[in-house]
Amino acid sequence: MYRDLEHRLAQRIREFLRGNYGVDLEKIVIEQPPRVELGEYAMPLAFELAKKLRKAPRKIAEEIVSDIGSIDGFAKLEVAGAGYINARVDRTALAVALAENDKPAVESSAGSSFACFNSPDVRSMYRTTLTIPECKLQMW
User: Where in the chain is the domain with CATH 3.30.1360.70?
Assistant: First the structure.
């Protein structure tokens, strides 16, 4: 799910850049912010675009955030620092998607999988994913 959201974010950013700036970036760099209060994803792409567009990175980031619209699975995008774009996951939608998913959280050759989601932080949820044979997905 985490990688699906990352891919969705990168794809939407790529489409936006192509349509609004005529720029086609093959790779959209997506990082994890240093602190969870900054969001689940951070993108330094405005720094890369600054030379091509001859604008300040923060100005580019502000334009992207204000004009891109909503992205499925994300609560909002924010400008941070000199031009980072931080993305916040819609945690309610993520929890519902995880709860409704009939597939195991992690594929295992030994059998079913078990995932321990004991933290509201998405990155922590994935760090605490365990695989135990013959168990089902549980959330608490």
Answer: 2-89
12: number of Cβ within 10 Å: 20
Whether this prediction's pTM lies above 0.85 is answered by no
Domain 2-89, CATH 3.30.1360.70 — does that match?
yes
Of 137, 139, 136, 100, the C-alpha closest to 122 is: 139
Strand, coil or helix: what is 38? helix
What b/e string do you get for 108-137 counting C-beta neighbours within 10 Å, with b at 16 or more? Answer: eeeebbbbebeeeebeebbeeeebeeeeeb
Question: Which of the four pLDDT bands, split at 50, 70 and 90, describes residue 44?
Answer: very high
CA–CA separation, 11 and 87 (whole Å)? 14
SS3 110: coil
